Automatic annotation (TrEMBL):
GO biological process per UniProt: asexual sporulation; sporulation resulting in formation of a cellular spore
Family assignment from sequence similarity: Belongs to the SspH family.
Name of a matching Pfam family: SspH
Cellular component GO terms, alphabetical: endospore-forming forespore
Protein name per its UniProtKB record: Spore protein
Source organism of the structure: Ureibacillus manganicus DSM 26584
Localization annotation: Spore core
Keywords: Sporulation
Length: 63
């Protein structure tokens, strides 16, 4: 995903499905370098990781 899309997702009031290595995550913070973000696995609030934004994927849910 590109950094601008990540910013849109973080700023939105809607909920989006974002994954990192196939695992569903929340984006906690986008870093000023424009390349990295702090995320956590949706089921584990304590476990946070800094990842490259381009490794995040937006999953499209079919309703």
């Amino acid at each position: 995903m590109d950094f601008n899309r990540a910013q849109e997702i973080v700023s939105s009031s809607k909920e989006y499905e974002v994954t990192y290595n196939g695992v569903s995550v929340w984006i906690d913070k986008l870093h000023e370098d424009g390349k990295t973000a702090t995320v956590h696995i949706r089921k584990s609030l304590e476990e946070r990781s800094e990842v490259n934004v381009d490794e995040l994927k937006e999953e499209y849910l079919i309703h």
